[in-house]
Write a structure and sequence with these properties.
This protein is α/β, with parallel strands linked by helices. The protein is built from nine helices and seven strands. It has a domain of 151 residues: P-loop containing nucleotide triphosphate hydrolases (Rossmann fold, 3-Layer(aba) Sandwich), CATH 3.40.50. The strands form two sheets. Strands 2-3-1-4-7 form a five-stranded parallel sheet, sandwiched between helices. Helix 1 packs across helix 9 and helix 4 runs parallel beside helix 5. The two termini are 16 Å apart. It binds adenosine monophosphate.
């Protein structure tokens, strides 16, 4: 059987990792694995992990590595990931990156390519502050990607909401945490020859096209 393909989306909160990861997964027939979505699912289902995660997420802090790694390992071992996955929001620390290598090794694969979506800090604050979510996972933006009717999902008409951690007091902390704990991964993956840098300030379709071009060029995916 062919080796699984693993793509790691890197970039600050608000860069568009989730949006792009969903599109890429669909186009490349891979499964989208978002650690933030997994935590939010646990939160909605009121699991013990959800309760633990909430105490960190609401402050913009990272959930401890051990529980995060165990959660992602379990997700990647499910049958819908046999062909590989587009990882979004994981790894976020050097320890998580090391753990991911071990997990993927156990699954017969490795990190194939790391699209790094770069966006200036000022743009991130605006993007996160204007982000509106639907309960079924669609993401809108008050200015850049507005729904037809304010605060209403185009598809099913249900009300949109703002993520607790997209409120202004938490956004800056999330960006600082990214700079302190996650940004060292840029150099890590660059030194391994896996990083492709993408300008994330363009519109959604242009960024997708840039990523697809970069990854087909770099990894022959
Ligand atoms: P996201 O949806 O990727 O913006 O993640 C939302 C929040 O979930 C983050 O601010 C963290 O509190 C938590 N989280 C998501 N992924 C991770 C991770 N890999 N490590 C630690 N915490 C995470």
């Amino acid at each position: 059987m062919a080796k699984p393909t693993y793509i790691v989306m890197l970039g600050p909160p608000g860069a568009g990792k989730g949006t792009q990861a969903k599109v890429l997964a669909k186009k490349l027939n891979l499964t989208h694995v978002s650690s933030g979505d997994l935590f939010r699912e646990n939160l909605n289902n009121k699991t013990e992990l959800g309760r633990l995660a909430q105490s960190y997420m609401s402050k913009g802090e990272l959930v401890p590595d051990d529980v995060t790694i165990a959660m992602v390992e379990e997700r990647l071992s499910r049958t819908d990931c046999v062909g590989g996955a587009v990882l979004d929001g994981f790894p976020r620390t050097p320890a998580q990156a090391g753990a991911l290598d071990a997990i993927l090794n156990g699954l017969g694969g490795e990190v194939n390519i790391v699209p790094y979506i770069s966006v200036p800090a000022k743009v991130l604050v605006d993007r996160l502050g204007g982000r509106w979510m639907s309960h079924s996972g669609r993401v809108y933006h008050a200015l850049n990607n507005p729904p037809k009717v304010k605060w209403i999902d185009d598809v099913d008409g249900s009300p949109l909401y703002q993520r607790e951690d997209d409120k202004p007091e938490t956004v800056q902390r999330r960006i600082d945490v990214y700079l302190e704990q996650t940004s060292p991964l840029i150099e890590h993956y660059r030194s391994l020859g896996l990083l492709v840098e993408i300008d994330g300030t363009d519109d959604i379709e242009s960024v997708t096209a840039d990523i697809l071009e970069a990854i087909t060029g770099a990894a022959g995916l």
